[in-house]
Amino acid sequence: MPEIDGPIANIKRLNEFMDRHRLAAVVARSGQNFTYLSGIAYPGTLARHLDLPDSTRGVMVLWPRHGDPVIILNKIAEGLTRRDSWVKRVELYEAYTESPYSRLCKEVKAAGLERERVGFERNYVSAAHWAEIQSILPHLEMVDCARMMDEVRWVKTPGEIALLKKGADLLDDAYLEVFPTIRAGETERAVHSRLISSCLRRGANWAHGILNSSTNLIPYAGEGDTVFRKGDVIRTDYVAYVQGYPGHQSRNAILGKPSAEQQREYNITRDIYRMTIDRCRPGARAGDIYEFVVDEFKKHGWEYKTALVGHGVGAWWHQQEPVLARGSNIVLEEGMVLALEPHRDYWHLQDMVVVRKNGPELISDKFSTDQMFIIG
C-alpha cells in the first residue's frame, strides 16, 4: 500500500456536520465509517470483526471535533494498523479479556468528553455495548450519528474518486480479459473463478459478485454447475475493492451472434440506462429518477420490479446512500458517486458516475456498452 500523507475522507464536511449536530466527537465502529476515517481496509478475519457488532475483537475510531483521533484496537490488528493508517495514535486493549468499549470509555474520559454529546452508530453498536458505555459514563450524551455519517460520506473528495476510478479500471480490465475466453460447455463456477482471479491478480484487495447464464433464473444463488450454451446471455454484477474503495460495474455478453429479439432488448435497456445516467445532476430527487425509469420501461411494455435503479458507493461496502429507490427524498449533490443500474432480468448494465453540475462524469469508461459484447 502506498504511503498516505493524510485523510482522503471529506473531513471538512465531517466538521461542518459535527458542528450542525453539536457533536464533540464521533465513534466509528462500522466497516464503512471505520475504513472511511482510519484509511485502512482490513483483510480477511480482521475484516469480519468490523462486520459483527457483537465481536469481542471490535475496533473503532474515536474522532473528536477538536484534537487528534485515536484508534481503539487489539494487538492482533496492531501491526497493520500502525503501518497503513493515517491515524497515528493507537490505544490497545487485551483481546478476549478486556472489553473494547471499556477501553473506549477510558479514552473518552481522558479526552475530557465524558459529559459531552458524542455520536455513535446505533445500527452497529449492540444494545449490550450501548448499555455498557452508559453504565461507565452515565453523564455522556450518546446520540445516533449513523445517518449523519451517511450524508458526510456521500460527497466524495478527489482522492476518493481517484480510488474509485482505479477500482473501476481494474474491474473492466478483468471483464475484457475473461469475456473472450468463455466457451460453450463451461460452467458458471469456472468463469466466475477466472474473473475473481483476474481481479485479485490485478491488485484488488478482495472481489465478489454474480455471474450467471440467462437460463439460470435464480441469479443470487451462487455460481454453480449451470452450463453456458450458444445463444446464452451472460449477466454480471461485480465489485472489486482497491484500498477499501469499490470498482462496481455490470456487463452483458452473449455466446455467439445475438438474435434480433436479443439485440432489440439490449438496445432498449442500454438507452434507458443512459437516459437515467443523464438525469443524475445536482438538485435531482432520487425518487423522481426511480419513477422516470419505471415510466420508460412501461413505454416498452415492461414492468420495472427492481427495488432500486442505482445507489451511492463508498468505503468498505459498495451499496450506500443515496439509494435511488421509490419515494426517496434525497436530493443529489455535486460530488456524489453513483452506480446506476436500471435493469430487467439478465439485461444488466451498470456504471459509476460522478454527479457534476455540467452533467454526470463517467469514471468506469474502459468497457464500451455501445453494443453487446459478442463472444465468438
How does this model look, in words?
This protein is of the alpha+beta class and 376 residues long. The chain is 34% helix and 20% strand. It contains eleven helices and 16 strands. The chain has helices at 11-20, 31-38, 44-51, 78-84, 100-110, 127-136, 146-153, 158-178, 188-201, 260-278, 286-298, and strands at 25-28, 60-64, 70-74, 90-93, 117-120, 141-144, 206-213, 233-242, 245-249, 252-255, 308-312, 320-325, 337-340, 351-354, 361-362, 373-375. The strands form three sheets. It has a six-stranded mixed sheet with strand order 4-3-2-1-5-6, with helices on both faces. Strands 7, 8, 9, 10 and 16 form a five-stranded mixed sheet that branches. The protein is globular, with a radius of gyration of 22 Å.
Task: Annotate the secondary structure layout.
Layout lengths: L10 H10 L4 E4 L2 H8 L5 H8 L8 E5 L5 E5 L3 H7 L5 E4 L6 H11 L6 E4 L6 H10 L4 E4 L1 H8 L4 H21 L9 H14 L4 E8 L19 E10 L2 E5 L2 E4 L4 H19 L7 H13 L9 E5 L7 E6 L11 E4 L10 E4 L6 E2 L10 E3 L1
Q: Keyphrases for this structure?
A:
20% strand; alpha+beta; globular; single chain; 34% helix; 11 helices; 376 residues
In which order are the strands of the major sheet placed?
4-3-2-1-5-6
The backbone outline, from C-alpha atoms, is: globular
What is the mean pLDDT? Answer: 96
Q: Which value, in Å, is the CA radius of gyration? A: 22 Å
| Secondary-structure element order, N to C | HEHHEEHEHEHEHHHEEEEHHEEEEEE
- Report the end-to-end length measured between terminal Cα atoms: 39 Å
Quantity of strands, as a count: 16
Query: How would you sum up the major sheet?
Result: 6 strands, mixed
Q: What is the overall number of helices?
A: 11
Helical amount among residues, as a percent range? 25-40%
- What is the SS-derived class? alpha+beta
Unreliably modeled segments: none
Strand residue content: 15-25%
